[in-house]
Amino acid sequence: MIFVTVKGTKVPALGFGTWQLVGAQCESAVEYALELGYRHIDTAQVYENEREVGEGLRASGVRRDELFVTTKIWTTHFTPHELERSAKESLVKLRMPHVDLLLLHWPNPHVPLAETLGALAHAKQLGLARHIGVSNFTVALIEDATKLCPEPLVCDQVEYHPYLDQAKVREACERNDMALVAYSPVAKGRIKNDETLKEIGRAHGKTPAQICLRWLVQQNVCAIPRTSRIERLSENIDIFDFVLSEEEMGQIFALGSAKSRLTDFGFAPKWD
Q1: Do the domain assignments include residue 196?
Q2: 227-242 residue pLDDT tens
Q3: pTM, to two decimals
Q4: Three-state SS string across 247-268, please?
Q5: Which of these, 5, 117, 180, 244, could form a disulfide with 248 (CB 3.0-4.6 Å)?
């Protein structure tokens, strides 16, 4: 495993996303991911699977200090009292004294950002999280957040894959010594028939998904692919035995545009 290091924090470059995984399937997938060597597990309050993620973590037998566990506060809990209460509720479900990374899941313009960030920083100061960050923040919101937050923000988790150009957000993260964590890194499976990715994959004996994930980690980006298929778990982690050339990286960058976003809602910010 390789790591992305920001503000002295080492974040495993490849993680396992658990969106839409529930019940016994979620528990067994988390346990198996850890058996394969994953150490970065991502969940969220709105996924309604924190309890199952926690069960899978314990069943694996992996020591807590070897794990990097992320959860995310939902937007309805952004006032100070609510944020602290809901963070503690997440820890009860996970059966953990703290998470490694606590994120604001989406921006919420209805609660002052300074107020929410103050509460997030306080959660860290209380020991509920080792590190804090944001998710789905634009360049402008990143700049505002880093100025307003009393504690360092270590990441922005956003949609990022070969079809979506995120150069502006990536540069903003670099400027502020924040990791970019990519969700939907294989474009929800849409990359599997891409001829460019298939051709590059043939040269390395890899699948389009593995090429995507390698492309991300070579940018010093963390990727958190989500899958419900056990065989995909072992495929996704098998990306550390080859390197993409500059030409290949460029070919993949050329697939991107600002208009290929797959996750968008009415409450989303105005994207870069």
Answers
A1: no
A2: 988 899 999 999 999 9
A3: 0.97
A4: HHHHHHHCCCECCCCCCCCCCC
A5: 244
Q: What is the SS3 assignment for 3?
A: strand
Task: Classify residue 202: in a domain, yes or no.
Answer: no
For residue 181, give the CATH number of its domain: 3.20.20.100
At 35, list the tokens: 């058996």
Q: Rounded distance, CA 14 to CA 214, Å?
A: 10
Q: Judge whether 163 counts as a catalytic residue.
A: no
The contacts of residue 269 (CB under 8 Å, 6+ apart) are: 107, 109, 136, 137, 138, 141
Q: Using CA atoms, how far apart are residues 50 and 259, in angstroms rounded to an integer? A: 32
Q: Looking at 38, 47, 160, 163, which residue is catalytic?
A: 47
State which residues form the domain around 157.
9-188+221-227
Task: Please write the tens of the pLDDT for every residue from 49-67.
Answer: 999 999 999 999 999 999 9
| CA gap 220, 4 in Å, rounded | 6
